[in-house]
Each structure stands twice: as C-alpha cells, then as structure tokens.
Structure prediction request, 211 residues.
Amino acid sequence: MTPAAATIGDVRGARTPYPQAVRQLLRETLFAAARDELKRRAWSEITMADVAGVAGVSRQTLYKEFGSRDEFAQAFVIQEGERFLDGVEAAVREHLDDPRAAVGAALETFLRTAGEDPLVRILLSDDGTGGMLPFVTTQGMPVVHWATARLTATIEEGWPEAPPAKARLLAEALVRLAISHITAPGHTPETTATATGELLGPFIDEALGSA
Prediction:
C-alpha cells in the first residue's frame, strides 16, 4: 500500500459512523432550535412541539431522542456548559507550573465567560418555578456529575501524580462553587477567584503542589 493510500485509509477509518453523525446532527439542530426559542421567551413557555417545529422534525422524533422534556433540558444545559469548560480547560493548561494560579484562572474564566453570555443570563433569570434554573441547582446533579468528571480528567492530565480521590474532590468543590457563584454572584469574577484560591490554597498545594 502506498503512503497516500494508507493516509486515505486512516482518514476514512477516523470518520464518524454515519448513524452516529446523523444523531449528532439531529441533537445539534434541536439544541439550536431551543437556543433560538429561549431568546424570545422563557423555558416555561416553550413546549417540545415548539422546539421540534423550529428544528423541522416531529415531536415524536424529539421525544425518542431525549425521552422527556426534563431530560432534554438537562442535555441542553450540559451542551451549553461544554462551551464554558473548553475555556476552563485552556486556562488550567496555561498554568500547569502553578496549581493555585491554574485553579484561580479556571474559576475566573468560567465566571466571567458565563456572566457575559446572554443565554446564561436568560437561563438564570427565572424564579425557579418553570424555567431552566432548577437544572443547574435543585435538579442539577446530572450537570454536577458531568462537569466534575470532565474537570477531574483535566486535573489528572495536568498533574498525573495527583491522588485521583483528591483530584475528584477538588474538581467537585470547584464545580459546586462555580454554580453557586454564577447563580448568585456577589463579587467580580476576579475577586471571587482570588478568594477561592485563598480558601482552597492549602488543599491545592497538598493535592497538586507536589505532583
């Protein structure tokens, strides 16, 4: 086999299987439809039929993919969170030589980016009775578990010698603090990140400082 043929074979082998690609496109289309609807009205006023209609699919297709309205909302919140955690991970990787600075930069990046995002402000502006706020707070465990797992993986990648249990404990503490501060901000992202670094500093040094 020639090098060119081998390269083509590798590219083809790396392609996403067609059914998986179709499903991913469907989910992205549905999330985009929900995003568009949320710019016009609160989640409590949006039905699954509305989302399906904007996406150009049947309501049955939407239910088949997500199961229920609540499951769709949770998946949507996680999808939106992906954008913010990309920035958090980048901030961590820029400070691998200073664990405290990495944690502070990560938290500040998340709070600043989320606080400036129009959609996040919409999601958090309801009174908790019919909007999406409960999927981050009172019903937020799927989001907490997902974000904790992703941040734990980032910490373990950056400090591979850190004890796994401590890496996860630190990740979960940061996730819960971030959610608390984004839903009820009291200070600027920079001030909050600095205070959190001072509070968690000794544990960060113990868990990551000698890694």
Observations:
- Residues 1-67 form a domain with the Arc Repressor Mutant, subunit A fold (CATH 1.10.10.60).
- Residues 69-93 form the longest helix (25 residues).
- The two ends are 45 Å apart (CA to CA).
